[in-house]
Amino acid sequence: MNTVIIAQRSPYAVTVTAGKDYFWCRCGRSASQPFCDGQHKGSVFTPLKYHAEEDATLYFCGCKHTQTPPCCDGSHNRL
C-alpha cells in the first residue's frame, strides 16, 4: 500500500474556482481522481492541498509521477 498507482497516463483537465481548495490524490487509489477520497489511509501518502488563486483550467497529474505537483509536467510520457 506504499506504492503509487498510476490512475491514468494523461492529465485530468479541471476547471478550478478562485478561492477554493482542492486536494490532489498522491497515491493514485482515489475513485474521485484526480482528487483525494481518503483511500490513502494506512499508507505513507497524504493529499496535496492546492488553493486556486483564480478561475482557470488546470491539468492535474494523473500518473502521480510529476515533478511539479499537482500539475502535469509530461512525466507520463516517460513511464
UniProtKB/TrEMBL annotation:
Positions of the Iron-binding zinc finger CDGSH type domain: 9-46, 47-78
A Pfam family reported for this protein in Swiss-Prot or TrEMBL: zf-CDGSH
Molecular functions (GO terms): 2 iron, 2 sulfur cluster binding; metal ion binding
Listed InterPro entries: CISD, FeS-contain_CDGSH-typ, MitoNEET_CISD
Keywords, ordered alphabetically: 2Fe-2S, Iron, Iron-sulfur, Metal-binding
Gene3D superfamilies from the UniProt entry: CDGSH iron-sulfur domain, mitoNEET-type
Keyword Isomerase belongs to the record: no
Assigned GO CC terms: cytoplasm
Superkingdom per UniProt: Bacteria
Protein name (Swiss-Prot/TrEMBL): CDGSH iron-sulfur domain-containing protein
Organism encoding this protein: Pseudomonas leptonychotis
Taxon lineage: Bacteria, Pseudomonadati, Pseudomonadota, Gammaproteobacteria, Pseudomonadales
